[in-house]
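Audit log entry. Action: structure prediction of a protein-small molecule complex. Ligand: pyridoxal-5'-phosphate. The ligand was supplied as SMILES and no pocket hint was given, so placement is left entirely to the predictor. Protonation state taken as written. Sequence taken verbatim from the request; no trimming, no tag removal. Recorded inputs:
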Amino acid sequence: MSLDPSLVLPPPARPGDPLSAIDTPALLVELDAFERNLARMQARADAAGVALRPHAKAHKCPAIAQAQLRQGAVGICCQKVSEALPFVLAGVPDILVSNEIAGPAKAALLARMALHARMSVCVDHAGQIAALAATTAEAGSRLDVLVEVDIGQERCGVADAPAVLRLLEALAAHPQLRFKGLQAYHGAIQHLRGHAERAAAAARAAERTAAVLAELQRAGVRCEVVTGGGTGSVEFDLASGVYTEVQPGSYPFMDADYGSSEYGDALRFEHSLFLASTVMSCGNGERIVLDAGLKSLAVDSGLPRVWDDGRESGSLVYAAANDEHGIVRSREAGQPRPALGSMLLLVPGHCDPTLNLHDELVAVRAGRVEAIWPIAARGLSR
Ligand SMILES: Cc1ncc(COP(=O)(O)O)c(C=O)c1O
């Protein structure tokens, strides 16, 4: 028996489709809110005179990187070498791998990508410099190098200015590796809930960065770029006078976790990322079951919120995620519940790992599908 060649998985939707025609679970981006988020972030960075280099680990989607560049971003960040490849292939001209890399395969790929785009990378050890020097020499390429400084997160990064100076000595032996400046990123600050609490923590991180910069300056070292910051700290980073560049990632989407923080009158973004799901069972009469569980939603930062008419639902709660099922309960007994086949929109708890579960993003505006954007770097974590 020969197989029918037309038996292929159709896309979840096609441009022009109404929302009701989308095959779920499907990840949607609501374009009006998304575009306002992009414009708001760019305007704030421009007003502060600080370069915006959005983090593409949040979206992994070349179409979104291109939209950010059109707004005025100077380039993008990627967290992994393999993650950067689809962006290089899509013509993104300037990419910072905002991370340390280990292993010859990654250094070799990075050196080859540097023949096609302006690439930069972080280091915090002379061993990384030796590996990058060898692969760039072999490929005949050049790399910009940032030394990462630990400003309190206790993740990667050297401890102090003397350690930076030792790495600069190692770099000086390799003219194809150009010292560009410092990365000073503090991830733990980003999700502090209180606005004042985040402000104080960001101020401490900026002070630590400024102290390292002052000591480097006394040693005659100038840092062209000081990069860092995320969606939770960016308004403070922009005002700090320390950063020349910020690298927020989640702001185009505003996931439920970031939505739970306090912003006051400050820089705040709108929810634009939704998982469209369908009621697949309600036979029990006490709960409804959605077709979206752990395999279409990341729950590391909490369960998704049910979205209803522009706000969190007052009547339905996403109560538990199984692999392929989402259990939704009423907040109070007797409340009306969606019928079998109804579509529910969910705001994911954490955008980055949720996008990493999907092949495409369905871009919608005013209830209609406008485009399908491949999430080309999905799964690329080497
Ligand atoms: C080095 C670095 N920069 C920027 C970001 C962006 O953070 P956010 O998505 O919170 O804006 C991250 C996130 O983990 C990061 O690790």
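Audit: result stored. Residues 55, 58, 77, 98, 185, 187, 190, 230-232, 247-250 surround pyridoxal-5'-phosphate (CB under 6 Å). The mean pLDDT is 97.
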